[in-house]
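Long-time lurker, first post.

We've been arguing in lab meeting about whether S-adenosylmethionine would sit comfortably in this protein at all. Half the group thinks yes, half thinks no, and nobody has a model to point at. So I'm putting the question to the forum: if I give you the sequence and the SMILES, can you give me back a predicted structure of the complex? Inputs are below. Any interpretation is welcome too.
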Amino acid sequence: MSQSNDRTLRFCHEVLGLERLHYGIWMPEDELTLENLKEAQVRYEDYLVEKIPKGVQRILDVGSGTGIMTRKLLDKGYDVEGLSPDQHQKEVFTENLDVPFHHYSFERFTAANTYDCLLMSESAQYVNMEKLFENARQCLKPNGYLMICDYFVLENATGMLSKSGHKYDRFMDLVEQTEFTVVSNEDITDSVTKTLDIAKDVVDRALLSVDIATEKVRRKSPRISRFVLWMFRKKIEEGKRQIELLDSAEFKKNKTYRFLLLQAP
Ligand SMILES: C[S@@+](CC[C@H](N)C(=O)[O-])C[C@H]1O[C@@H](n2cnc3c(N)ncnc32)[C@H](O)[C@@H]1O
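Top reply:
Settle the argument with this. Predicted structure of the protein with S-adenosylmethionine, as tokens:
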């Protein structure tokens, strides 16, 4: 996982106070409020829990984040374990949960006992595609399930949004090549993109506050402010590119958000 992704997740957790590090499933009538975001994120988790096939008992929460989903699965009576390569998440997880935690990337993990189901809630995008299927086969019992909820990049995607996530077509080819069966494949793009709209709203408001707070300085000392803008031009450009990532219309053009339930041979 890149350092900037790691920082973003810590920012969501520590600064915005969001315990959950994934998109939400929104209702069409939902307004863009932090309360509705939290409800949408809980709805996303409930949606995943409902999709767990009958007979599943042992689950590995791959990329378990702060452990919220692990706790939910534990409360539902599953035998669940967490895995994440992130040091901060390891500390949060092990402080709050008394279940096994594997401090590894999935690529480097070897299962001592195989699982009925591997859950990848917005973590598949960080795992090397070939290794993902190879290791999933090794970690799963025969006919075990690989549950993935994540965004993928469409074939003709361009710009910043084409740079994060696996290519959808290539991913689905690998599903076939590695002999997984597709039990379910749902496109939930339209119900998750309000998560981007609220994030953009928060960023736009923060930028407006900075604009208002610095207005006086800009009026009184235009040459100094032009110099400061020049000094920080790279940071400003980077900021603009980051905002592009929050454009939900662009997201829909370039990405597809999928729920995939796959079954191992
Ligand atoms: C966006 S967060 C999702 C967290 C949690 N699953 C959720 O739905 O809230 C991505 C997670 O993937 C983990 N991750 C990043 N690279 C990984 C890798 N190579 N193998 C396993 N997990 C990884 C991160 O540490 C983090 O826990």
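For your lab meeting: Residues 124 and 148 are 7 Å apart (CA to CA). The chain has two domains: 3-191+256-263, 194-244. Whichever side wins, do check it experimentally.
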